[in-house]
Amino acid sequence: MFDPVLLKSFVAVAENRSFTDAARTLELSQPTISQHIRKLEAAAGRILVMRDTRAVSLTDNGEAMLGFARAILAAEDQAVKYFTGSAMRGRLRFGSADDLALTQLPRILRDFRQLYPHINLELTVSQSGNLVRRLQAGQLDLIFVKQDAGAEGGRLVRRDRMVWLGHKSMTLEAGSPVPLIAYQAPSLGRAYAMRALEADGRTWRITCNVKEVNGALAAVRAGIGIAVFPQSLIPADLAQVPASFELPELGDVDFVLLDNPMAAREPVEALSTAILSRPVQRRA
């Protein structure tokens, strides 16, 4: 019903609040812009633009039309890119540490796939160390992982603090070995825990070996022991253990993006930008 050409002229007038500036923006003559606005008003059956010698303003119907016009033009642009093949194409092998999948990352990936439907996104979820090895072997193009705070390499997404995680009913007698829920070695969280406990002269016992984050959280919820976890990702039903446990500080951890320099740059940069531009925090 509404010609996109007319809508483009209307949006230009609305944004510039001037027929003259709109004509300059679209590289059209001012009479042409005026004609487009009259045709759009005739198609809508409403007055959209108020004109006087000093200013141009939108009517209430004009404000409504502006929202519809922007949506229609955006949808047209996406459709053109999709069907003309001008949209970005390629294959992107992306890896994420499993606990980072507890963040807004799934929503970011869903939006990315909708925006770039011609990119074949292949997702691998694993431990940070395993993902780094696969990246170095050329099996992945981009990874989102945890590493020691301040370590060289990669683009920093955010810095977090590693903490001791337990169920709210968990207790620990003074001087008793720390019941540790840990990923199988090699594991960054396991290394954080043992490094801190050894430096503090504390003893521990492994009460549960896990391979992925859901196993670790299930064991914590069952009260089997204490785990090491990024502070910002703690689920609502669990908590950082109290100071009365007298456990040592674990230090900071970085969430970073690492990429394969041999990978196609366009898809890597597009997804990196999507992750860096959105808050990476625990899903509500």
TrEMBL record:
InterPro entries: LTTR, LysR_HTH_N, LysR_subst-bd, WH-like_DNA-bd_sf, WH_DNA-bd_sf. One of its GO terms (molecular function) is DNA binding. The keyword Magnesium does not apply. Residues 2-59 form the HTH lysR-type domain. Keywords: DNA-binding, Transcription, Transcription regulation. Pfam families: HTH_1, LysR_substrate. PANTHER family: HTH-TYPE TRANSCRIPTIONAL REGULATOR LRHA-RELATED, TRANSCRIPTIONAL REGULATOR. Belongs to the LysR transcriptional regulatory family. This is LysR family transcriptional regulator. It comes from Salinibacterium amurskyense.
